[in-house]
Amino acid sequence: MINEPVPGVVVAAVRVARTCLLDAQFRLDDHGYHCRLLDGLQDGAATLLAEWAGRDRPNLALAVPLYFTEAAQQYRRAARRSY
Fold it and tell me: Where are the domains of the chain?
C-alpha cells in the first residue's frame, strides 16, 4: 500500500458508505433478517477507515455471553419482533 495520505473526499465517501451499510443492517434486523455479506462489507469499510486514520484493525468481537443473548431474545419477544 502507498504511504501517501488518502484524499479527504475518499475518506468522506467511505464514511458515508459505512453509515449506509449500518443503516441497511439495522433495517434488515428490524424485519428479522441477517446478511453475512453485508456484515463483511461494513467490516471492510470500518477497517479501511481505521487504517487510514493510523489505527490498528478493529478487534474481533468476543463471544457474546449466553445471558446477554437470552436477554435480547426476551426483549424481542416482549417487543413482538420476529427473528
Answer: 8-78
Rounded to whole angstroms, how far apart are CA atoms 26 and 42? 12
- Per-residue 3-state assignment (H helix, E strand, C coil) for 26-54: HHHHHCCCCCHHHHHHHHHHHHHHHHHCC
* Pairwise CA distance, residues 60 & 44, whole Å: 12
Q: What is the C-alpha separation between 6 and 47, in angstroms, rounded?
A: 14
Taking the C-alpha atoms of residue 80 and residue 54, their distance in angstroms, rounded to an integer, is 43
The helix-helix angle for 8-30 and 36-52 (nearest 10°) equals 150
- Distance of alpha carbon 63 from alpha carbon 74, whole angstroms: 19
Question: Over the stretch 18-77, which tens digit does the pLDDT of each residue have?
Answer: 999 999 999 998 888 889 999 999 999 999 999 999 888 767 777 778 888 889 888 888
